[in-house]
UniProtKB/TrEMBL annotation:
<keyword id="KW-0067">ATP-binding</keyword>
<dbReference type="InterPro" id="IPR018109">
    <property type="entry name" value="Folylpolyglutamate_synth_CS"/>
</dbReference>
<protein>
    <recommendedName>
        <fullName>tetrahydrofolate synthase</fullName>
        <ecNumber>6.3.2.17</ecNumber>
    </recommendedName>
</protein>
<keyword id="KW-0547">Nucleotide-binding</keyword>
<dbReference type="GO" id="GO:0005524">
    <property type="term" value="F:ATP binding"/>
</dbReference>
<comment type="similarity">
    <text>Belongs to the folylpolyglutamate synthase family.</text>
</comment>
<keyword id="KW-0436">Ligase</keyword>
<keyword id="KW-0479">Metal-binding</keyword>
<keyword id="KW-0554">One-carbon metabolism</keyword>
<dbReference type="GO" id="GO:0004326">
    <property type="term" value="F:tetrahydrofolylpolyglutamate synthase activity"/>
</dbReference>
<dbReference type="GO" id="GO:0006730">
    <property type="term" value="P:one-carbon metabolic process"/>
</dbReference>
<dbReference type="GO" id="GO:0005739">
    <property type="term" value="C:mitochondrion"/>
</dbReference>
<dbReference type="InterPro" id="IPR036565">
    <property type="entry name" value="Mur-like_cat_sf"/>
</dbReference>
<comment type="pathway">
    <text>Cofactor biosynthesis; tetrahydrofolylpolyglutamate biosynthesis.</text>
</comment>
<dbReference type="GO" id="GO:0005829">
    <property type="term" value="C:cytosol"/>
</dbReference>
<dbReference type="GO" id="GO:0046872">
    <property type="term" value="F:metal ion binding"/>
</dbReference>
<dbReference type="InterPro" id="IPR036615">
    <property type="entry name" value="Mur_ligase_C_dom_sf"/>
</dbReference>
Length: 488
């Protein structure tokens, strides 16, 4: 096989699971207890299959990387349900602002999940996606090493890494080879058994807002979810969390005591600028405040004493240059305004509505949610309730799919699971739900994102401008961004 970017993506896709595991392990593996005996707040677990942390250290050793190599990355580890990516992006921006003034950190790695438009979004250095040639080079170095006959004999009981494990390994390999001074890591799903959690000595850890998330792996209750998220806490490493509901805070505090760390709960920082566009929602103020605490702890531990604090100019510069596409993002086209947020759970959509500041222009919603794991109908109902509570009237509601272009083209690096219902039937259900909520709204169904955007633009042309909220899924927002702001 030729060592091309396209072939790297094809090989990566072969490592996706075809279905979620259904069986618990009957024996322990590599020091972990049997999965059915893994403790949580109730002493039981719903976690199924082999935890994704299993094999990560062994695979990295095959690649020639030790714990010391990983520790030299100076990791900032972030878990949570809502706001992980934004918090990590704020951390990156603040560190780079400090580095431009002091010389440290000079090079910052960022690993996030999922991607919106391009797999390389998950692995960034400074503010740049890893280039295609570099992704290809490091991917095949990892793939060739782990798929070799010698490696398969050495690590045969683990086989080849699964999709997210492989991406994390490529990211670790990239940041080590590129000698980053700091590496910001967003967990995939949980924390305790997440494939990113083999890091033994992170510099600081952070927990964003926790809600019901990935219940099949982490549930069945919010306390179970919190237990897993707090698994990133490490002895000797400071930990921070945004304010949480009392039952969640109690679990986080108990886990902090178990791991012998001091946990700080971070409210909105009063020194945040009041006019920053990046801080237009309460959620982003919370995420930025957590990022300030994480960066502050990082600098105290790693920077020279004379440069161990962020200055007010660092903060203003970092927030001013903050960018995180598809999350509370505003794109202006004359009098047309697009508000994009990839909210895909009920906690997220409450904040997404804040993004769409009401004006006097016609207001439009473009929505879809297609998943075999989350309830799109409940998500749409929650969104409608939030819109009503914020006194926003939507004149047009457009339901669409994850199909990007009207000509039927798709993206090579996306693989979307769909529910056990036809897509047209699902869109018809969404239309019926909204028709009952607001019989006066104009409700349409478009088979492709491109068609939905064209319909909204047509309204803008007829009415002298429009405001359109695009939300419900990261896949939807990614497809919309591909059309509104194509990648070079």
């Amino acid at each position: 096989m030729k060592r091309t970017y396209e072939n790297a993506l094809k090989l990566l896709q072969t490592r996706r699971r075809t279905a979620r595991p259904t069986d618990k392990l009957s024996v322990g593996i590599d020091g972990l207890p049997p999965v059915g005996a893994i403790p949580n707040v109730y002493g039981t677990s719903t976690l199924l299959g082999i935890p994704s942390i299993v094999g990560m250290r062994e695979w990295l050793e095959l690649l020639g990387h030790s714990d010391s190599d990983v520790n030299r990355l100076n990791v900032i580890h972030v878990a949570g349900t809502k706001g992980k990516g934004s918090t990590c992006a704020f951390v990156r921006s603040l560190l780079l602002a400090h580095g431009s003034r002091t010389g440290f950190p000079r090079k910052v790695g960022l690993y996030t999940s999922p991607d919106l438009r391009c797999i390389r979004e998950r692995i960034q250095i400074n503010e740049q996606l890893i280039p295609e040639d570099l992704f290809t080079k490091y991917f095949f170095e990892v793939w060739d090493c782990l798929s070799s006959q010698e490696s398969q004999v050495t690590v045969g009981k683990y086989g080849m890494p699964r999709y997210l494990q492989l991406l994390a390994l490529v990211a670790f390999h990239t940041f080590i080879k590129e000698a980053t001074d700091a590496a910001i890591w967003e967990t995939h799903h949980g924390g305790e058994y997440d494939s990113t959690n083999f890091i033994r000595e992170p510099i600081v850890t952070g927990i964003t807002t926790i809600g019901m998330d990935h219940v099949e792996q982490l549930g069945p209750t919010i306390e179970n979810v919190a237990w897993h998220k707090a698994g990133i806490f490490k002895s000797g490493t400071p930990g921070f969390s945004v304010p949480q509901d009392p039952n969640i805070s109690a679990v986080l505090q108990a886990r902090a005591e178990e791991k012998k760390i001091e946990l700080g709960f971070v409210g909105v920082n009063p020194s945040l600028p009041t006019d920053a566009r990046a801080l237009q929602t309460s959620a982003q103020k919370t995420n930025c405040s957590l990022a300030l605490a994480l960066v502050g702890a990082f600098l105290k531990r790693k920077a020279r004493p004379e440069n161990s604090c962020l200055t007010s100019s660092d903060i203003l510069d970092g927030i001013g240059k903050f960018s995180w596409p598809g999350r509370f993002e505003v794109i202006s086209e004359g009098r047309n305004e697009w508000f994009l947020d990839g909210a895909h759970n009920e906690l997220s959509v409450k904040h997404a509505v804040e993004c769409a500041t009401p004006r006097s222009l016609p207001r439009i919603l473009i929505f879809t949610h297609i998943s075999d794991q989350r309830d799109g109908q409940a998500l749409l109902t929650t969104l409608a309730s939030c819109i009503k509570n914020n006194n926003i009237r939507l004149e047009y509601v457009i339901f669409t799919t994850f199909q990007e272009r009207q000509d039927g083209s798709t993206r090579i690096d996306k693989n979307v699971k769909i529910p056990h219902i036809s897509i047209p039937d699902l869109l018809a259900i969404y239309c019926d739900i909204w028709r009952k909520i607001d019989p006066e709204a104009v409700i349409v169904s478009e088979p492709a994102i491109e068609g939905a955007l064209k319909f909204a633009r047509k309204i803008g042309e007829e009415k002298g401008g429009m405001e359109t909220l695009i939300t419900g899924s990261l896949h939807l927002v990614g497809g919309a961004l591909n059309i509104l702001q194509p990648l070079n």
